[in-house]
Amino acid sequence: MVLARVILGLLDLSPMTGYEVKRHCDTTIKYFWQADKAQIYRTLSQLTADGLAAVETAPGVGGPARQVHHITERGREVLNDWLTSKLERQPERDAFLARLFFSGGLPESQVEELLAARRADAESLLAELEEMRRSLPDPPDRRARLRLATLDYGIAQVRTELDWLADV
Amino acid sequence: MVLARVILGLLDLSPMTGYEVKRHCDTTIKYFWQADKAQIYRTLSQLTADGLAAVETAPGVGGPARQVHHITERGREVLNDWLTSKLERQPERDAFLARLFFSGGLPESQVEELLAARRADAESLLAELEEMRRSLPDPPDRRARLRLATLDYGIAQVRTELDWLADV
DNA sequence: GCTAACTAGTAGACTTGTCCACTACTCCAG
DNA sequence: CTGGAGTAGTGGACAAGTCTACTAGTTAGC
């Protein structure tokens, strides 16, 4: 599954605990990958069992002991395989579009409410993404450039959404 | 879950069999909702068990008997509740962005391959959506207008993606 | 001294979705 | 007259993800 690869990707950037993986899913990579805590820990032990990651228990600094996960050589191979393998578009699933599509029976005002709510959402998301963008280092290295690019993708999509909302 | 509402939405447009629901998921609503056949049939019987849909067995015209599902009054209520309830953005999960994000260790050429593959994908998707758009009735009624709008959303997003790809 | 917040991780039930194989009927082409 | 494509539906195993609740340590505020 993809979550396993995403976690490998994170571990490749730097060794970390499940807790830190979760934090990344809630912050840095939130705009393209979110995951449940329980699922993260389970995937992490799966990776360890498969020899793609290795654990080391470190004493906690101001807190409980930490199980730091490192990526292994095998893990790096698997990650690379994934990154270079053929990618097919995943099945689209957009609950907002679904609602809009089926809103034909609703009074005009309620459709507008739906759109207004979506606009508010999109605006706050845009603000968040732009804030994130500002916080990125200015003379970007290779990795940061890719990170910037994915972020720009998100920003562009939300902007398009706002334009579209204005049109409808 | 959302699939149940989507199916209710389809049944609200016209009564249909599980097979036809599946066909919609593969054609008309494919660009915002895809679903597995087995899941559709299971959801359909769940809807029936909950009294949101009712089944009527009709003789098959050139084929096996058809179990036509209708939406019930209760079903219509539930659908309306869903359409007007507060909507929160669902967790984003984009495997392509994930790959790109973690491609920092790859040689330049492979990143470009990834982008090229994505471009090809986006182009064929755009062609498909535009084809779909052309096939829509020209003097649109209310429902068709909404359908057009959701489709335009998809088209706009893919166009943005292509622009972004050209930029990167 | 108590409590809340943050860090760190575990356990189990449950839901949703996917995959695969199967039955069964009709029509059409070769 | 046989096989494939399209229609219509079922069953079971399994994978992936969610939700809730729990333990346990540290730090900081009241």
From TrEMBL, chains A, B:
Domain Transcription regulator PadR N-terminal: 7-80
Domain Transcription regulator PadR C-terminal: from-to ranges: 93-167
Alphabetical list of InterPro entries matching this protein: Tscrpt_reg_PadR_C (IPR018309), Tscrpt_reg_PadR_N (IPR005149), WH-like_DNA-bd_sf (IPR036388), WH_DNA-bd_sf (IPR036390)
Record's protein name: PadR family transcriptional regulator
